[in-house]
Amino acid sequence: DPFHVYNSIVTSFRSKSLSDEEFKNSISVHPTARIDPQVIIKDHVKIGAHTIIQGHTYIDRFTTIGDHVIIEPNCIIGSDAFYFKKEEQRYIKWTSGGSTHIMDQVEIGAGTTINKGVSSETRIGTGTKIDCQVHIGHGCKIGANCLIAAQVGISGKTKIGDNSILYGQVGVAQNLEIGSDVVILAKSGVGKNIASGKTYFGIPATEAFQKNRELASLRQLPDLLRNLKK
């Protein structure tokens, strides 16, 4: 029964109550970092130099935040994975035993949520910029210098390469690999792996030039049907 064995292992190592001194010693905040009022920081958190964390943000356990990072208000960093097993008509929560790593020079917009990994890390690469109200699932690996626009949702364990751009409201399924230098246009739904250096659009997302040809053909369909009827 690996599911319950895993939960018991994580619980035995992660649920230990800390004394006030242990809690204090588990947190490292660089003297140059700026932490606004009403930010909540849990145990085993490290925050680097010149980083700014704005009000009402929640930083959960086992999170590392690099240097020169900006996290805007009302973000949730390192929350539990959305991961459940169905047993006897009910859902059992799989305890999140992973971590969250935000690398240097990352910017995270207001209201964004980034889940920790279940048994691994969630990682946001150096220089990546994330807009407001984005959700990044458990165990995702986002490369360096990516742009992720508002309301993008990336499901768990997906990997995205360097210098990729996801425009607004893109949805990405779980366990996918998206290459480097990829552009995914707004409102696209990604359900399969994407090679590097390509632009994708649509639901399901396909290469943009092919999707545009399909749309152009569809616009001609009424005339073709009328001519066929004649």
Overview of this protein structure:
18% of the residues lie in helices and 30% in strands. The chain has helices at 2-14, 20-25, 208-229; strands spanning 28-29, 34-35, 40-41, 45-47, 52-53, 58-59, 63-65, 70-71, 76-79, 84-87, 90-93, 99-102, 107-108, 113-115, 121-124, 129-130, 135-136, 141-142, 147-148, 153-154, 159-160, 165-166, 171-172, 177-178, 183-184, 189-190, 199-201, 206-207. The protein contains three helices and 28 strands. The model has no long low-confidence stretch (mean pLDDT 93). It is of the alpha/beta class and 230 residues long. It has a ten-stranded mixed beta sheet. Strands 1-4-7-12-15-18-21-24 form an eight-stranded parallel beta sheet, with no helix packed on it. The chain has an eight-stranded parallel beta sheet with strand order 3-6-9-14-17-20-23-26, with no helix packed on it.
What are the key terms here?
ten-stranded mixed β-sheet; 28 strands; 230 residues; alpha/beta; 30% strand; eight-stranded parallel β-sheet
Shape: globular
What's the number of extended β-strand segments? 28
Q: Structural class of the helices, strands and pairings?
A: alpha/beta
Instruction: Measure the end-to-end span.
Output: 67 Å
Rg for CA atoms: 21 Å
The largest β sheet comes out as: 10 strands, mixed
Share of β-strand residues = 25-35%
Q: Strands across the major sheet, in which order?
A: 2-5-8-13-16-19-22-25-27-28
Helix count equals 3
What's the pLDDT, averaged over the residues?
93
* Share of helix, binned: 10-25%
List low-confidence stretches: none
Write the layout of secondary structure elements.
Elements: H1 2-14, H2 20-25, E1 28-29, E2 34-35, E3 40-41, E4 45-47, E5 52-53, E6 58-59, E7 63-65, E8 70-71, E9 76-79, E10 84-87, E11 90-93, E12 99-102, E13 107-108, E14 113-115, E15 121-124, E16 129-130, E17 135-136, E18 141-142, E19 147-148, E20 153-154, E21 159-160, E22 165-166, E23 171-172, E24 177-178, E25 183-184, E26 189-190, E27 199-201, E28 206-207, H3 208-229
Parallel strand pairs: 1-4, 2-5, 3-6, 4-7, 5-8, 6-9, 7-12, 8-13, 9-14, 12-15, 13-16, 14-17, 15-18, 16-19, 17-20, 18-21, 19-22, 20-23, 21-24, 22-25, 23-26, 25-27
Antiparallel strand pairs: 10-11, 27-28
